[in-house]
Amino acid sequence: MQKRGRPIRGANRTFELTNISIFMPASCSVSTNENGHSATARLKQRTHARSNQHIDMTLSSSPHRQGLAVALYQPDIAGNTGTILRTAACLGFAVHIIEPAGFDLSDRALKRAGMDYLEMAALTRHVTWDAFEAWSEDAELRLVLLTTKAETPYTAHNFVADEILLFGSESAGVPDTVHGMADKRLTIPMAPGARSLNLAVSVGIVAAEAIRQISAHS
Fold this sequence. Notes:
CATH architecture: 3-Layer(aba) Sandwich
CATH topology: Alpha/beta knot
Order of helices and strands: EEEEEEEHEHEHEEHEH
Helix content: 25-40%
Structural class: alpha/beta
Strand content: 25-35%
């Protein structure tokens, strides 16, 4: 379903739709006014086997690189996420945000960092970790976690198309439970004494290497 220049609200988020398509699950219904125009989108609650509620909303207006996706676990900083969405739009990979995030997706900082590339980005929102985990298992994707606690450098990993690259929040990374669920854990080697890289920079570094490898394989 596609609307232009009309705000749509769902899961406490507001988007100004210009050239973005909204894909809703079967559990969503759209009410219309007397002129037949879409007025509101009502999300019906349904029970998921692994979470209390599962509501996903995907924003996409351009094709993304087949199989390559990045997931952000509860990101804190809107500017970083905007930069990642811009990078994703330019390089052609999909982005998944696992909520709750530390900002509203209509945040000015996100729009300023992402610029008009936000309209090109393939973005999926997952309202909880359980919702994301259920989705990734249904899609049969391997979870590759980037973390400073790993020992294997990302350059030593053979990236394939059925993996999703998971990055933790800027302030706390991911909890131990999520850390333990990863199929593979990788790190970006840094100079002695360095603590961490900026999240958007980290995503760009690893995504570029994954694209290089996947393109070479295909």
